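Proteins fold reproducibly. Look at a concrete instance:
___
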Amino acid sequence: MVVCGLACWRCRWLLPLLLGLAIIMGIIALAGRGWLESESEPYVHQASLWDSCTRSKQDLNWSCQSLMEYGWGRAAAATYLVGFVILVICFALAVIAFSIEILRFNFVRGIGGLLFVVAAFQIIGLVIYPVKFTEEIPLMGDNMFSWAYGFGWASTVVVIGCAFFFCCLPNWEDEVLGNIKPTYYYSSPERAPYLN
């Protein structure tokens, strides 16, 4: 005997868990110093969302310049940070929504809409940064956009995926709430005599 049907109500915490993962990746992106780094030795350049640091080949001390002195630097940081704050709000709303026994599906769809706003803000910040950085900051040696910048994009991709799931979840309201009866598929009587 095989039972077919969605057991989503038991898995309802997966979406808030994914949003929590996106928050962790966003924190790493905001705090990380690996938005841009020298690709190979000597490592003479590294940058975060907030500043750009360089050093000469002989000097071990980094000399840092704030990117907040540039309009594009403030814009990139502000858009990514606004998206991150809205993401934290969406996480709190998702925890509240899935904690209630009577799930309000219009509320869930609203969270999905907010997550699309988060993705838009984060994408704007993640596009402004490399375009304007390479135009206005003199680069030394071979450089690459590195791990912290990658965490920013990873957070954004998870947010986009969660946004689709939150928006589509009301379409399976009965399955999620367990309001439908499972469909049973039986084998032929010869193969399963105990069913008679």
Summary: The first helix runs from residue 14 to 31.
